[in-house]
């Protein structure tokens, strides 16, 4: 990296980071300087949680949550390669949320996952009950350095409470559904569940 050019926009939840780079090639030569734009934010990483249980029929079920995602909902029609559904932007996801600044440690990630589980689907469990679900991933490495950290937890559906939510209008009145895991994975194949992090976690859960 050669230098970082500050954004001319005021600080917000997301910030533009404009950097100038030069690439060093194996023979030691350098490329010409080039500008690369990316997105940055203070709370960079996120946890993804797969809460699950086995029903009386022995099938594993997983809790999903509805969410409205403005960037998906406001895709401009002129950019559509294929027709979009009328439900564009209405997304079914596993509970997930951002890692706070004081949660940047392995134990902190478990605390973050337990907090988001309570906020989004209403299960109050000790952080130690959250178990890793495979390695972390970069969901959009060409645009943001965010990592997703995956966890799973076995829950008792009889002990589900009211989700605390985080105060955001986007979290109010969200629908929550317990879906058989194999059916949820089929919904990803059919494009009904479109959230990539959710598909990754569902498929990893099925492999346990």
Automatic annotation (TrEMBL):
<feature type="domain" description="Nudix hydrolase">
    <location>
        <begin position="42"/>
        <end position="201"/>
    </location>
</feature>
<protein>
    <recommendedName>
        <fullName>GDP-mannose pyrophosphatase</fullName>
    </recommendedName>
</protein>
<dbReference type="GO" id="GO:0016787">
    <property type="term" value="F:hydrolase activity"/>
</dbReference>
<dbReference type="InterPro" id="IPR015797">
    <property type="entry name" value="NUDIX_hydrolase-like_dom_sf"/>
</dbReference>
<dbReference type="InterPro" id="IPR000086">
    <property type="entry name" value="NUDIX_hydrolase_dom"/>
</dbReference>
<dbReference type="Pfam" id="PF00293">
    <property type="entry name" value="NUDIX"/>
</dbReference>
<dbReference type="GO" id="GO:0006753">
    <property type="term" value="P:nucleoside phosphate metabolic process"/>
</dbReference>
<comment type="similarity">
    <text>Belongs to the Nudix hydrolase family. NudK subfamily.</text>
</comment>
<keyword id="KW-0378">Hydrolase</keyword>
<dbReference type="GO" id="GO:0019693">
    <property type="term" value="P:ribose phosphate metabolic process"/>
</dbReference>
